[in-house]
Structures are given as C-alpha cells and as structure tokens.
User: Fold this.
Amino acid sequence: MSERIAYPGNFAGSMFTYALFVFIFSRVWAGAYAGTTEIAGYTMSMAVWYFIIAEIPSFGFGRFFWTLSRDMKSGQVAYLLARPYDFIWYNFAEKLGGSLIEAGIILVEGLAVGFALIGLPPAIASQYPVGFASFALETARLGFLIVSLLLAGALNYFLQMAIAMTAFWLEENEAFYWIFQKFALVVGTLIPIEFLPEKAARIAVWTPFPYLSYAPARIAVAFSLAEAWSLVARQALWVVLALALAKVVFASGSRRLSVNGG
Amino acid sequence: MTAITADRLGKTFTTRVRPSGRFSAARALFKPELRQVEAVKGVSFEVEEGELVAFLGPNGAGKSTTIKMLMGILQPSEGAARVLGLDPTRDRVELSRYVGAVFGQKSQLWFHLPPSDSFRLLGAIYEIDEDDRKWREAELVERFGLAPYMDVPVRKLSLGERIRCEIAASLLPSPLVLFLDEPTIGLDIVAKREIRQLLAEAARIDDTTIFLTSHDMGDIEKVCKRAIIIHHGEVVIDESMKDLRHRALALKYVGVRYALPVNLDLPGLSPVKRTALAASYEVDTRKHSLAEVVRALASRGELEDITIEDEPLENVIASIYATKSGTEAQAFGSQRGKREAGSGELLHA
Assistant:
C-alpha cells in the first residue's frame, strides 16, 4: 500500500476517467430509458448505480496483468523467486493490497458522483427516512457489497495472474488478456447480465465473468439477503477455482522459466 | 563442509529463430523454427563453507545462468546441484531462507519505499523475530553507514547508496551463502572500494560463503581467494587467486628514461612504446631473465629512471576470454601457467 501511495497523482487519471465514464453512461441510460421506466427489472436509477458499482473492480483491480506480465517478461520474476514465500500469495498481498486504496477511492468517488447525478441508491431512496429495519438491511447490504468487491478483486487477481503467467510459455500473451477484458466488460460490467439475451445470460452465470463485477453491482442495486448469499458463495467458489488454476499454471510454468543474462 | 556443489550442471535454452522471407512469419506460427542454445555445458566445481570465490567469465559465458540454477530459479537441463545440502530445484523456497543474493543490475528493494520499510518487509518475509530483526538491522546500518539513507525512498538514492542498502538487506537474514552478481557495476572508484571492503568484512564477521561474479578485477582481487573462470559454458580455470596472479607475473612491463638519446632496440626485444629518451618493454620472463634485461638497459647509457610493473591480472583474464572455445581456453590457461627456462643470451649486446 505504501508503494502505491508514493505517487498520489497516479490516482487522478483513474478518478477523472471513471467520473467521465459514469457521466457518459448516465446520459446513455437517460436516452435508453426515454419513454420507459424499466428494462429487464432495472429502473434508470438502478442501471446508473449498477454501472457505478460494476466499474469499481475494473478501475480498482483491473490492471494486475500489466505489472505481473511486465515482471515475467523483464525477467524480474527470477529475482522475485529468490525469496522464501509463496509467489502467488506474495503477489496477492502486494498487488491486491496496493489496489485496495485505489478501489476505496473509486468507491467513495462513485458514491459522490452517483449522488450528484441521480440521487441516493435505489433501496435507500425508496425507504427514506431510514427506520431500524431498513437500517439493518442497509448495513447488511453495505457489508455484502464490501465482501463482494473484495472477492471480485481476488478473482480478478487470480485470473489475471494465471493469464500473465502464460508468459512462461509465450513471448506475447496480451491477446489473452484482451479477450478476458472484453468478456469481463460485456458480461456484467457495462450492462447487467439480465440485459443479455436469455440464452447468453444462462451461459454467462456458469463463467467467472459475472463474479468480477455483476455480483457486487447486483448486491448494490437489487439487494436481497438470499441472492446476496448466493452471489457471494458463487464468487468464493470461483476465487478458489481461480487460485487453483493460478497455482497449477505457476507450478508448471516456473519449471520452464528461461531468463538469460544478468 | 561443502557449501556448493555443481556436478556437470548444464542449461540449454530453446529460442525461436526469427524467420525471414515471404509468408515466413505465418509459416512460423504453425511450424516454428527452434534453436537450442547451450548456455552452460556441464560445469563441475565445489565450494567449501566460508570460501570467497570469484566466478568469472565474459558476457554470455553462463555465469548468471549458473547462479540462477544454484539458487533454484532455473531448472538445470542436465547435471545436478547441491547448495547447503539442499537440491535448489526441489527445495527452492527452503533454500532461499539460507541464501542471499545481490544482483547489481536489478533492485531487490522496494523502489518507492525507504530502506527501513524494505528491511521491515524482509524481516516479515524471512520470518525473523522482531527483536532480532531490529538488532541485526541496527548492526548492518552501522557497519554499512546507512543511517542517512534509511528513510529516503530507494528511487532517490544514488547507485552507490542503493547497492550498499541492497547488500545490507541481503545480509539481514544472516545468509550462509551470498551470491553476488556484478555488485559494483556502474559504481565509481570510491564506491567500489567501499563495497569491496564491506563484502570482505561481511565474509569475515558473518563467516558467509561468498560467490561473486564481476567483470571488475579489483572486486575479485580484493574480495576473493579463489577464481573459477567459465567460458563458452565450461569451467576453464579453477584455482586460487595466488596461482592466478602467478600467471600474470610471467609478463613484466619495464619502463626506462635516459639522460641522453640512446639506441633503444635490444637484440630480441623491441620497445612497445618509445620516445627519443624513453621506452617501455614487455618482457616475457619465461624467455628473458629480468636481471639481464635491466643490465642490458643500464649498459646503454645514463639511466634517469627505471620502473618494473607486473602485467595486470585483467590482461591474463582478457586473453583467456579471447579464446574461441572452452578447450582452447583451457589449453591457453595451462600454457600461460607454465614457466619455461629463460634464454636471455640475445640481450647481451
């Protein structure tokens, strides 16, 4: 974390781009919702807030691949292997730990921009003024949202780690990340998966992509305890599977490490 | 006890050959042309605990690759290694607890953090007890004179300051073996001298086995007691620094300056440099006795000055590096080592 905050100015670019994206999408949804109040169960407020939350993992946790891949290609990985730690978990602590600050800043910015553009998030708005029951529910929603965002971060990290480690075999592996990014964007980041054609949505839930951004965004805009538990449990399962994948790729790839020269 | 054993250790890299010609790039996608590069060809040596060994060789000789195999970072293609009784490939994580490394061209400290934070982080990574870590850190800070830099981000340190911090950090977990890969690269003379002193001191105080690669003869002469020279992936020389220096002693550089111009050519020995009053000669003491050369020079006229210098060790090693194969280098090394009976009769003029 200390490394990440060495240059606070680095956050400015992400914050500006994020605010711009949110503004543009709020206008896109304003156009899409002209003449209708609901699309696939989402009101316009829900759709805008969905985008605000769904973009947080992309901005906060979306760039592990580049640093990991750079370490692989530059040969820095050889020096990182010379220490008594688990390579995957060490990088997890370093990369995800560092990203938490960025994700936290984007979350706070998202809440502020969302409030300025479209008002309070849907559930709070509908139950305002807040009573004790709704307060308890809102607290649960916030708790699930944070857990879900952290799981999204972990899933993002392990999947990007697995993709970055293909550099053990391939000189050029950016195409894999490009494909991964596009799937992640379409399946749950730009739009909720309920907006996808029914067949595509049914297939999507069996892939890891909805758990990178759909899960926390869904928890934020259409919270129910049962669905939140289900989404978080599925996210946790995908995290375990992605961790196993990263471990297998590392175990196999590190044996093929080829670093020439000093 | 043996700290490091390399037994016919070899590494072959497979690289893709860049295709040329029409559609060759597309063809290479399906049928890539691969080339095997033998970086290290079955090197064997043993290093005892506490030894200070220089591991030398020209660029591309296989030094760094050998170090990486000894640390378990690279898997050998052939042969085996043991470091502190462990198999580096199989026991890499366990071995890294007892082995330190400094790579002059790569920073192992966290670039944006001050060394004090890196030391704390390393303490956690190596699971050093907090009190022990503080004690050890204080000792290293004093020994390496790091107090002024401990709270400055690494990115703001000069190269010399950073390397000092790197070496101190590598000694934090009290490693039994320290691998140093060109630790003084890019440093000025003063910084180099300081680093050499600190390394020699570290080896003496901590009884650390030092395995050093460097292109700088000063590093090797000041720090190491033994030299292993690797060339074309093979060990071509493995002997004490004392023996290696003896190879250099075979050649002497004799410089003379006369009060008046004289004939500077000696029979069988021409000056390598000359002016009207001065000259310098490269004397192979296996062919000419030094005493006879001096006598012959003195007999030419009134000497104002005479100097006799050893051939720099660097020249001997450069000659070995210039050979085209491992076998040639070995042959050259042993030839350089032989002392022939001198025949100085031509000098009596």
Remarks:
- The radius of gyration of chain A is 19 Å.
- Chain A is about 75% helix and 0% strand.
- Chain A has a mean pLDDT of 87.
